[in-house]
Write a structure and sequence with these properties.
single chain, alpha/beta, ten-stranded mixed β-sheet
């Protein structure tokens, strides 16, 4: 019922403020082509740094479709050469509702999706007796509902939005990943999607402690398979926090963020347009209402359920005295603790996703659209300087795509897919990130082989010398007691792709 109500409000709003005329009457544009680091490039927004961008031969800047923004490196050149999906994006244009960023975002978030995928749940008991859940995606026709622990298939860890809703984007990503040989597993936070709340603790926005334990379980269950991670929307805050805290000990080979929200504190403070914010606040209240009695022991539920903004909900949950999920930030008994000076800022000092971004040690792809109505204006919400200076981060920026939408024209998707009809069912951003994972893995394997060959040529290829080379670690986890991964056993490549 809630989904239909949200969809109805969005339709009414769109009818009143229909998107700009640039959405209508436009001709089909040719596919974008990516240009390498060498040569002349056009910077977006007069920003410094190099940007690997597309040029489709059109004189009008509006004809630009896709831009790969990153620091020039060996890996960047390899991606430009081998990731053809990056330049095979043709967004829907003309007189169609999918050309509206707002309607497409609402459709992807609320409209039901009949997926041929079913889920097998693992409830994980954490060190503090709390519970999180991993939903393993399996085909509906598969009789055996459990995968073998000896399987070498790569694992795709999917982190949905911070509100815990399974969207069409998550379901279609699971379906696409299964078709490409991955084992998708969806991470559910405490109390999300039917996960029981067994402790008086909810997960803070950027606290990766629960995710860290889930990753350990995945590595224990699937020790032979590589681990990749994908996050959508506000769930990217959790993934980036985890990668920053664990650094090269993250257990992951590569990661991707779909329509991420980078500057989360300002996103909560500025808020969304009122229909979207109202819908998200209402959805959170409905999910938390079943725990109203037990949560009342630690927080002020009156303030929680009377909040009318996302910031109000976040403050009521985590910035009050005796708050759920962290130690008190104010003396006991002060009813106005959530309004104490600095409390809100202190909360984001511990939860801002980019707080430890310099410690990230694996390739991370972010797929964003300029017309994203949830994230906001790209010039003020996307940290372009991060992608221009950090060799681990790659930004795939499109002119259109809305929020977790990236809907391709059927004929263009069919022409770009190897399987013909697969392109009509597969989201362009999903194909792009899976191709990014494949290319990154191939590049790392080639670099590792080249280094071992060079070591043998220098007379260091003996049994002991080779092992010493492979087991060298460039960095350790930032918080070693909390993230004691045995990285030497699984992470044996050097950061040569940053050259």
């Amino acid at each position: 019922m809630l989904e239909w109500l949200v969809a109805l409000c969005a339709v009414i709003l769109a009818a009143v403020t229909w998107p700009r005329c640039t959405y209508f009457g436009t001709k089909s544009r040719p596919n974008a082509s990516l240009k390498g680091p060498g040569g002349s490039q056009q910077a977006t927004g007069d920003r410094a740094g190099r940007r690997v961008s597309e040029q489709d031969g059109a004189r009008d800047e509006s004809a630009r479709t896709v831009a790969l923004i990153c620091k020039p490196s060996a890996l960047a050149n390899y991606l430009l050469k081998h990731c053809r999906t990056f330049s095979n994006y043709s967004p829907r244009v003309g007189w169609t509702w999918r050309a509206s960023a707002l309607l497409q975002s609402v459709y992807e978030a609320c409209w039901p999706y009949e997926s041929p995928v079913q889920f097998v749940r693992d409830n994980l008991q954490l060190s503090d007796d709390g519970l999180v859940a991993l939903d393993w995606a399996v085909p509906s026709y598969q009789k055996r509902r459990r995968t073998s622990s000896h399987s070498a298939s790569p694992v795709l860890l999917i982190i949905p939005n911070s509100f815990g809703k399974f969207t069409r984007n998550v379901l279609k990503l699971c379906e696409t990943a299964l078709c490409h040989g991955y084992l998708p597993a969806v991470f559910n936070r405490r109390s999300h999607n039917g996960t029981p709340l067994t402790t008086l603790k909810l997960q803070q926005f950027g606290d990766p402690a629960d995710l860290r334990e889930a990753v350990r379980y995945i590595r224990h269950r699937q020790p032979a398979g590589r681990l990749y991670a994908v996050s959508e929307s506000t769930g990217s805050g959790l993934l980036l926090s985890y990668l920053g805290e664990c650094g090269s000990s993250s257990y992951m080979t590569a990661a991707a963020c779909l329509s991420p929200v980078f500057r989360c504190q300002s996103w909560f403070e500025n808020g969304l347009c009122w229909p979207l914010q109202w819908a998200l606040v209402l959805y959170q209240k409905v999910c938390l209402s079943r725990y109203k009695t037990v949560l009342g022991e630690n927080i002020q539920t009156d303030a929680l359920f009377s909040s009318c903004s996302l910031r109000g909900l976040e403050e009521a949950l985590f910035c009050q005295t005796g708050q759920v999920g962290s130690a008190p930030l104010a003396p006991t008994g002060t009813s106005g603790a959530c309004n104490a000076p600095g409390t809100w800022d202190n909360y984001w000092e511990r939860n801002e996703p980019l707080r430890d971004v310099d410690e990230v040690a694996i390739p991370v792809l972010s797929v964003c659209a300029r017309d994203d109505p949830v994230r906001g204006d790209a010039h003020s919400t996307v940290p372009f300087e991060l992608f221009e200076t950090n060799p681990h981060f790659f930004l795939l920026l499109t002119e259109r795509g809305s929020h977790c939408g990236f809907s391709n024209r059927p004929e263009a998707g069919a022409a770009g897919a190897a399987g013909g009809t697969e392109g009509r069912r597969t989201n362009w951003s999903h194909r792009a990130l899976l191709e990014f994972f494949r290319a990154t893995t191939d590049f790392i394997a080639a670099e590792d082989r080249a280094k071992q060959l060079a070591a043998r040529r220098r007379g260091m290829g003996g049994g002991g010398g080779g092992r010493v080379f492979r087991h060298r670690s460039l960095s350790t986890c930032k918080r070693l007691p909390a993230c004691s991964h045995n990285i030497h056993a699984i992470y044996n490549w050097q950061r040569s792709y940053t050259r």
